[in-house]
Amino acid sequence: MAVRPEAVAGNEMQLEDLDQYRRELNGYCYRMLGSVFEADDAVQETMVRAWRRLDGFEGRSSLRSWLYRIATNVCLDLLRGRRRRALAMDLGPSGRADSFLGATRPEDAWVTPMPDARVLPGDGDPAELAASKETVRLAFVTALQHLPARQRAVLILREVLRWQATEVAELLDTSVASVNSALQRARATLASRSPDAGLSPSISADQKALLARYVDAFERYDIPLLVSLLRDDAVMTMPPYDFWLQGPVEMGRWFLGVGIGCRGSRLVATAANGCGAFGSYRLDPAGGHEAWSIQVVEVSADRIVGHHNFLDTDLFAAFGLPSHLDP
Questions:
Q1: In sequence order, what are the residues at sequence separation of 6 or more whose Cβ sits closer than 8 angstroms to the Cβ of residue 92?
Q2: How far is residue 285's CA from residue 43's CA, in Å, rounded to a whole number?
Q3: Looking at the domain assignment, is residue 142 inside a domain?
Q4: What is the pLDDT of residues 132-162, one digit of tens each?
Q5: Burial 215-234 (b: 16+ CB within 10 A, else e)
Q6: Does 115 score more than 80 pLDDT?
Q7: CA nearest 113: which of 235, 272, 237?
Q8: How many domains, in total, are found in the chain?
């Protein structure tokens, strides 16, 4: 829905004029902050500030640019003095299934998953959708967290959203030369980290069949079949646990050892970070199944390469999933 020029001129915008940008702002704030919860807060704060300042909006820039300026300032405020969010692979070497000690880190240590429906366009050009998925991959969002906050904003605005250098300079109240310099440094940092190497840009019919076999194996707890679907260098993470595993052998040992509580689980399909994802529900002694984790399953060619389990049941509401499944 386009904003009516006469509404802008007359400062008569409605809430829906602002709300049409919520999805793309959610994607921008998520890339900046690495957290679905903080992104929600940042977008809500952006909308509140915009609504309060409508009388001061005189149409000298587009409504979209004005909202991005507010969102950027909100994100920069939130990032001031914050620790860098990460995935477990950034925090130490892989472990063994029998060396798990149960150590955890707080929620603000981790990059969290984001539902595709809240950040990706629902339709449009397939190539553009595939490119958008690449920029919300867990590894890419994690790599962004290594950038200083203003470099992060520059790279997202220039490389992901395809803004012109002049537009970014105006938004950040800086020079084009400064924007170009920040972009060059940000590119070098990301290149050194090589995020998402080998991940498929979209899920093919064969890979959908692979995910279906995974669901079947997991729900029947056929661990030999499950590990046969993994690539030799596949990784498994389990935030908030400060621990990760690599390879089918260790992951198989985990599922038949410490992770045996997953036996009897059910999976409910969703989509997150441009990948197949599932709400995982463990058996509830009182009946049915209770929310346990959000799984993000990364696929490359004909194998699973990433099995990320986010053990935060608050995420189920963010994904629109129930907290309990009836028998």
A1: 242
A2: 39
A3: no
A4: 899 999 999 999 999 999 999 999 999 999 9
A5: bebbeeeebeebbebbbeeb
A6: yes
A7: 272
A8: 2
Token pair for 51: 């609504």
Percent of the chain with pLDDT over 70: 91
State the pLDDT at residue 11.
46
Q: Classify residue 323 by its DSSP letter.
A: S
Distance between CA atoms of residues 40 and 29, nearest Å: 8
Same domain, 59 and 44: yes
Print the domain residue range for 209: 87-137+196-327
**What is the pTM assigned to this prediction?**
0.92
Computed over every residue of the chain, the mean pLDDT equals 91
Query: What is the predicted pLDDT for the residue at 195?
Result: 60
φ, ψ (nearest 5 deg) of residue 197: -60, 125
Q: What is the pLDDT of residues 23-44, one digit of tens each?
A: 999 999 999 999 999 999 999 9
Same domain, 219 and 290: yes
- C-beta separation of 48 from 2 below 8 A: no
CA distance 127 to 145: 26
Alpha-carbon span 238 to 180, nearest angstrom: 38
Q: Are residues 60 and 162 in the same domain?
A: yes
Q: Which amino acid is present at 71?
A: A
CATH code at position 55: 1.20.140.160
DSSP tag of 117: G
Residue 11's SS3 state is coil
CA-closest candidate to residue 32, choices 67, 64, 79, 66: 79
Same domain for 184 and 327, yes or no, is: no
Res. 240: pLDDT tops 90: yes
Q: How far apart are CA 232 and CA 159, in angstroms?
A: 32
Q: Which amino acid is at 295?
A: Q
Q: Locate 40 and state its tokens.
A: 């929600």
| Assigned domain for 258 exists | yes
Contact 136, 272 (CB under 8 A): no
Task: Provide the phi-psi class of 34: left if phi over 0, else alpha when psi is between -120 and 50, else beta.
Answer: left
